Amino acid sequence: PACSVAAASGRQCLKHSFCRRGITAIEILVVIAVLGIIFAVAIPQFSKIRENQVLKNGVADVLSSLNKARSQTLSSLDSSVYGVHFQSNQVIIFKGTGFLDNDTNNEIINIVTPATISNISLTGGGSNIYFNRLSGSPSVSGSVVISSPNFTKTITISATGTASVD
Fold first, then answer.
1. Cβ-count burial of 102 within 10 angstroms (0-12 exposed, 13-18 middle, 19+ buried)?
2. Which of 1, 29, 40, 102 sits at 20 to 30 Å (Cα–Cα) from 14?
3. Residue 98, CA distances (Å) to 52, 128, 137 in order
4. What residues does 116 pair with on adjacent strands?
5. Cα 24 from chain centroid?
6. What is the pTM of this model?
7. pLDDT above 60: residue 16
């Protein structure tokens, strides 16, 4: 409307005036290039953020499992001791001093990929730990490493039964 008024009054619209309509192909290409650069930088960062969060969740699951087994033992739940069995993609809370794979009392906690338990270094070897009913001290001490392609966390289980993350 403003352009038709300007043309009707005999004034000419200048090349860079507000009368110009639409956008050029060069402007579209510039916008696409800028968006492409932003996405090329942002998407890998979001991927790393997600991977780091999955690793943190895996660490929290392992710590929670250790603390739950220890507290169930100290509270003498079912007059038994409880322990934790480590596998690469899951942690299993078991009842008793020995892990049985098909026991119905087992509580399985899955570790979400890309996080995995990559190294289990418990004194005496093995992948099981159970807690003493009176003191809460573990049958073994050592460390469990949880890793993803870009990040690693180590959980250390002390001789007193407390677990900490580096």
1. exposed
2. 29
3. 33, 8, 16
4. 147
5. 45
6. 0.77
7. no
Structure tokens at 80: 């038994």
Looking at residues 86-97, what average pLDDT do you find? 96
Cis status, amide bond into 138, omega within 30 of 0: no
Mind spelling out the 3-state secondary structure of 23-80?
CCHHHHHHHHHHHHHHHHHHHHHHHHHHHHHHHHHHHHHHHHHHHHHHHHHHCCHHHC
| pLDDT tens digits for range 107-127 | 999 999 999 999 999 998 899
Q: Is 163 exposed, middle or buried (0-12, 13-18, 19+ CB in 10 A)?
A: buried
Single-letter residue type at 85: H
**Listed residue (120, 55, 42) closest to 88, CA to CA:** 120
State yes or no: pLDDT of 1 exceeds 70. no
Instruction: Please report where in the chains the tokens 């409307």 appear, as a residue.
Output: 1
Task: Compute the distance between CA of residue 91 and CA of residue 117 in angstroms, rounded to an integer.
Answer: 9
Question: What torsion do the CA atoms of 156, 159, 161, 164 make, to the nearest 10 degrees?
Answer: -20
In which residue are the tokens 């093995």 written? 126
> What does the alpha-carbon distance between residue 38 and residue 64 come to, in Å, rounded to a whole number?
39
Sign for the CA dihedral angle at 162, 90, 88, 151 comes to: negative
Determine the residue type at 113.
T
In the numeric block, the tokens 């991927």 are attached to: 47
